[in-house]
Amino acid sequence: MTRTHRSFVRRVVTAVALGAAVTLAAASPGDAAARPAAVPVPLRVATYNIHAGAGEDNVFDLGRTARAVRDLNADVVGLQEVDVRWGARSEFRDEARDLARTLHMRVFFAPVYDLPAEPPRTQRRRFGVAVLSRYPVVSAENHEITRLSTQSPDPVPEPAPGFAEVTVRVRGALVHVYTTHLDYRADPSVRRAQVDDMLAVLAADAGPKVLVGDFNAEPGAPELAKLWGPLADAAPHGGMTYPAAAPDRRIDVVAVSPRIAVAGVREAVTTASDHRPVVADLLVPRPRS
Hints:
There is one protein chain. The chain is α+β, with helices and mostly antiparallel strands. Helices cover 20% and strands 34% of the residues. The chain has four helices and twelve strands; from the N terminus they run αβαβαβββββαβββββ. The protein has helices at residues 3-26, 62-72, 95-103, 189-203; strands at residues 41-49, 76-84, 106-115, 125-133, 137-147, 158-170, 173-181, 209-214, 232-233, 252-256, 261-267, 278-284. The strands form two sheets. Strands 3-4-2-1-12-11 form a six-stranded mixed β-sheet. A six-stranded mixed β-sheet has the order 5-6-7-8-10-9. The longest helix is centred in the first third of the chain and has 24 residues, at 3-26.
């Protein structure tokens, strides 16, 4: 944790603790409500479509990708377009494991595609999304949502994996973090179905929830409308994220469940991918002891 991040945590905890003390002083003696509220937990999350490790210049450089992620100083990072032994474009690297090792973070990789190796190679070719975490991962799951395959010559919408969920333990709080990569096509029908599928997954989970990802649509798009209510856009007035050098649309999004407070959001200026990453400072409710 850097000095800046530690300073943010101290400011948040001090402010919340002072607020709890004032509430306690105002309550009558013996009032059950006089118990101070549990201090919320600071959590920095980010989303980043890493373009399989290639910058906007289309040059593969996973070290550059790692530096861009490190500069976010995030506790949990949702990644999209992650190659694992996929092909020559990423030097047949296991990008999920390599980034986790370089950044000293835990990782969960959720493939969208898991295909046989191309001879003479023996390891399967996989492509999907991943979550990096500084905090312990209590559980992880690769959920199916509706997809239109890019690997079939005549695809039809059907359930397919690649919607990642991890539950992380953050200073006593269990937080569900999901990362997604929605359909890129102009027709919004698949994205609309994906929203329904994601909301069904989220509805099955209790507690604080954070959804991050490349939505391939701006938050105000009609097909995303059902998200807003169960979740809130962490940066409704945020900056553009794509394309990275001169962005003209905001399609990389952090969304949070109602009891999570947003302390700040920013887009990082980098061309280590064709997308800009988004990083958000959140305050997550902690269960009463």
